[in-house]
Fold this sequence. Notes:
By secondary structure, chain A is of the alpha/beta class. Helix content of chain A is about 35%, strand content about 15%. Chain A folds into 2 domains: about 45-280 and about 480-499, Aldehyde Dehydrogenase, Chain A, domain 1; about 285-470, Aldehyde Dehydrogenase, Chain A, domain 2, CATH 3.40.309.
Amino acid sequence: xxxxxxxxxxxxxxxxxxxxxxxxxxxxxxxxxxxxxxxxxxxxxxxxxxxxxxxxxxxxxxxxxxxxxxxxxxxxxxxxxxxxxxxxxxxxxxxxxxxxxxxxxxxxxxxxxxxxxxxxxxxxxxxxxxxxxxxxxxxxxxxxxxxxxxxxxxxxxxxxxxxxxxxxxxxxxxxxxxxxxxxxxxxxxxxxxxxxxxxxxxxxxxxxxxxxxxxxxxxxxxxxxxxxxxxxxxxxxxxxxxxxxxxxxxxxxxxxxxxxxxxxxxxxxxxxxxxxxxxxxxxxxxxxxxxxxxxxxxxxxxxxxxxxxxxxxxxxxxxxxxxxxxxxxxxxxxxxxxxxxxxxxxxxxxxxxxxxxxxxxxxxxxxxxxxxxxxxxxxxxxxxxxxxxxxxxxxxxxxxxxxxxxxxxxxxxxxxxxxxxxxxxxxxxxxxxxxxxxxxxxxxxxxxxxxxxxxxxxxxxxxxxxxxxxxxxxxxxxxxxxxxxxxxxxxxxxxxxxx
Amino acid sequence: xxxxxxxxxxxxxxxxxxxxxxxxxxxxxxxxxxxxxxxxxxxxxxxxxxxxxxxxxxxxxxxxxxxxxxxxxxxxxxxxxxxxxxxxxxxxxxxxxxxxxxxxxxxxxxxxxxxxxxxxxxxxxxxxxxxxxxxxxxxxxxxxxxxxxxxxxxxxxxxxxxxxxxxxxxxxxxxxxxxxxxxxxxxxxxxxxxxxxxxxxxxxxxxxxxxxxxxxxxxxxxxxxxxxxxxxxxxxxxxxxxxxxxxxxxxxxxxxxxxxxxxxxxxxxxxxxxxxxxxxxxxxxxxxx
Amino acid sequence: xxxxxxxxxxxxxxxxxxxxxxxxxxxxxxxxxxxxxxxxxxxxxxxxxxxxxxxxxxxxxxxxxxxxxxxxxxxxxxxxxxxxxxxxxxxxxxxxxxxxxxxxxxxxxxxxxxxxxxxxxxxxxxxxxxxxxxxxxxxxxxxxxxxxxxxxxxxxxxxxxxxxxxxxxxxxxxxxxxxxxxxxxxxxxxxxxxxxxxxxxxxxxxxxxxxxxxxxxxxxxxxxxxxxxxxxxxxxxxxxxxxxxxxxxxxxxxxxxxxxxxxxxxxxxxxxxxxxxxxxxxxxxxxxxxxxxxxxxxxxxxxxxxxxxxxxxxxxxx
Lengths: 499, 289, 318
C-alpha cells in the first residue's frame, strides 16, 4: 500500500454560521392573544343564566406572570349559594332525572365537542390566568378536559354494566370545589362523571383561576344544557364553606389541600352528605441502578417541574439507589439548566409562573428551611422576569428523611433527593409518610416493578413514566391524600347510589 | 321542460375506493311499483377476495389506534349520518319503507353509532380482568380484536341491521367485509360514502352488493377471515356455513334478531355484541424484587 | 475550533481494545423506547422564528454532506452535484457552502477535481457499502484506496450480521482495523439503525463504535426502509454524551436519510442543541446526510427573506 499525504485544507468558512459556539437563542414565539375573549367582568352562572352576585361585589383576578389584572369575578355569598342549589335541585327533579340516559349522553358529547372547537382560546385563557406554559394548556389541559367529557358521555346510558347486580341511581345535587393548578381540567374531572350519572351540580372554581370555568359556563349555555343542571359560582373560602354546609347538597367533592380537606370532612360529619376528597401528596420517585438512566432523568424532571410543581401527585421525593447517585445528580444538574423558564405565552417555555404571591411565599419559606436544615441546594441559573411570581427550578441533595422538605408538600418546582441501598429500604422510606397519592418506579426489571407496585401504599403508581393521565384511568389517593377515585369505571362510584 | 336529473351509480366500497364489480355484472333493484331504482353491482368472489385483502391490510392500523381515537371516529360517523339523514331517509323510502319507518330507522342508526362510540374505551374495563392466581404472579386478561370479520347484513331493516353488526365489530378494532342486503342495498351503499368521509381509514369497512347465495360460500370458506356474522343469513343456510367455517376454525357469530325490534335500544345493542368479536388474552408475569 | 481539518487519532494497542469493549458493553444500559420517543417528540415542538430560524437554516446547510450513492453515478452527475455544493443558491452570497460531498469510492477522483480549493470535504463510503457483507481485507483495501484517491472522510458500515448474532468483538475489531486504514482521514461509523432491533441495541452499537475508534457515529446508509429518526438520534447523542464523560473524547454524530424537509432538520438541530449544548453546533461534530433537503432549506431561507412561500421551480436541482 502506498502512503498518502493529505493536503490540509482551508478551515470551513460557513459565513454567517461560523458563530457556531454562540448561544442559540430561540426568538420569542408568542401565542397571539387576539382571538381570545376574556370579559372584563364575569357574573355567576345560575339556572342557565349569568346573574349578578347578591352582594354586588366582584374581586380582581390577575395574570401571575405579569401581575396585570385580567378580569373581575363575582363574589358569591350564602344567598347566591342557596339560589344555585335550589336551581340545581329544581333541574334535578323536573328535568335531568327524567331525561333518557342516551339523551343525557348527547348533551355531554356536545360539551366535549365545543371544548375541542374552542380549544385555542381556552388554552390561552388558562395560561394567562394561571401561569402555566401555553404548550401545556394547549397539549395537555384542554385536550384532556375534552376527553373526560367524551369518556363519561359514553357511560351515561351504560351504567347497568358498571355495577353488577345493582340498581343504579344518581345521588342528587353535587357540590364541587376545585383547585387552581389545572382549573379547566379539574372542572372536567368533576362535572363529567356527575352529569353522566344523572346528577346536577353546583361548582366552585378556585378564586385565583376562575376564568376558564366561566368560559366553560358559556360553552354549557351554547350546548343548550337544561338550565340549572350545571351552576358555576365564584368566590373564595367563604363561598366554598357555604356550599359545603348547605343542607340540600347530597354530595361534596373536593380537590385541594389536606388541611382544607380535613376541615370539610369535619364539617360534613353527621350529615347525610357523601364525600370524596383528593388532597395533597409527597410522592416518592424511586430510581434503581438498572433504570434506563437518561429516560429516568426525563421522568424525574417531568415529575417535579411539570406545571411548576403545582401538582398533587408530583414526584417531589427522589429516591436514588446509592450506586447511581453521582451520574444521576450530574445529569439532573445539566438537564435543569436547559429548562426554559419565562413568559408562559411563549410556545418554547417549559416552566411558567408560580400561581400566586401567597404560593410563592410558601415555597420560599420551605426552601429556606431546607437550607437551614443542612441540605445542599442547587438552582437553575436561568434569569426570570422582574414582574410576576417566579421560582427557579431547584433541587436539594443530602436531604434527611425527617427534614421539612422531605415531609411537607412544597407544591413548587423543588425536588428533594434521598438515597437507598436496597429495594426494601426504598419501600420503607417511600411509605413513611402520611400521604399516599402517587409513586414512581424506574427499573428495567418487570418483576421488581410489580413487587414494588404491590407494596407501595399509593393510589397511582407510574413505572418508567410519570404524570400520565387519562379519563379511562382511575386517580386518587391512600391515607391523607384523600379517598374516592376520579377517572375510569371507578370514577362513577362517588356519583351513584346502588340499591 | 323539467330539468333532467343525474342518476346515481351504485358501486362497491373496497379499500376506501368505489370500484365497479370486476365481473362487470349487475342486477336490477326495483321499487314498490316495479319501477327500476338502480342497477346495483352484482359482486363477485374476486371482489370479495380483494375486499378481504384490503381488510387484512387495514387491520394493524385500525386495531393499533387508541380506543379514544376509534370512539371519536364512530362519533364522527354519527355526526355525518345525522347531517345526511334526509338523503338516507329518501333512499329507504324509494326502496319501500314508509316515511315514519325510514325516519325512525335513520335516527336509530345515528344513535347506534353513538352508543357504540361510547363503549370503545370501556368494554375492556367490563370484560377484562386481573386474575388473583395462586402464586407470586401478576395475571391479567385483556380483550383483543379477532381480525377480519365477514358480515352478512339482514335483509331488513337493510341499513340499521347492517350498522348494528358493523359497529360492534369495528369499535372493538376489527375490520369488516360486509355483504349488503340483497333486495335493498341502496342506503347501505351510500353508507360507504359516509365511512369514507368520516376519518375511517380505507379497508376498515368494505361493502359488497350482490347475490347472497353466490357470495356467502366464498366468504365462509376464505381462509383469511377470522369470524363470520350470520345474523343476515336465512335460518336454513346457517349449518352449511358453520361446516365450511370449520376449515380455519372461524368464529361463527349469530345475533338472534327474531322478534326483537332492531331499533329497540335495550335489546338490539349491547357490549356483548363487541365481546363476540374479541379474543381474550391472558398474561402472566412474576412478582419479585 | 480545532486547528487541523483532519484530526490525527492515536492508534490503540491490542490490549486496550479488549479492555475498551468491556467498557462499551458495561455502559450499554437499557433505553426506554416510549420515554425516548416522547422526549424527541417534545423537542420537535419547539417553535423557531425569524433570526433564530435563519441562523439554524444556514447552519444546517454548512453541516450538510451532500450525497449521491447510485449505481448510475457518473463524472457528469458528480460534477454537477459539486457545483451545487459550492454554491447552493447562486442568487444569494450569504448562503454558506456545504460541509462535504459524499460518494462511492470510484467517484472520489472526480469530486477531488471539482472541489479543489473550496474547503469542502470529500467523503467516501467504503467497506462494502451498504451491506458490508464482504471480506475484511477488501474492506481495509477499499478504505486505503479511497483515502489515497483524496477522501478526507470515510463512512463505513458495521457488520450487522455479527452484531445481531452477538459477536460484538468482531464488530469492534473491524472498526478498529478500518480506523487504522483511514490514516489521517476521519472515520464515520454507520450503525444502520433501521436494521437494529431496538434503541438498546442502538446505544450498544454506538458505544462499541466509539470505543473502537470512530470519529463520528452515523445512523444509516439511506438504502433501507427506516433511516434516521429523531429518537434514534437522541439515543445516539446520549451515548456520545456518556462517552465524553467517561473518556473526555468528543465524537460527532450524523443522521442520514429521511430528513425530508427544513422543518424536520431544524427539529434535529434543536434536539442536538438541547442534548449536547453549543459545543456540538458545528460541522466538526454534526452532519446531515441528505440530498433533496438542501432545496427545501433554501426555499425556507428565501421565504424568510421575501415573506412569500416558494416554488421548487426557482431552485436548481443541481
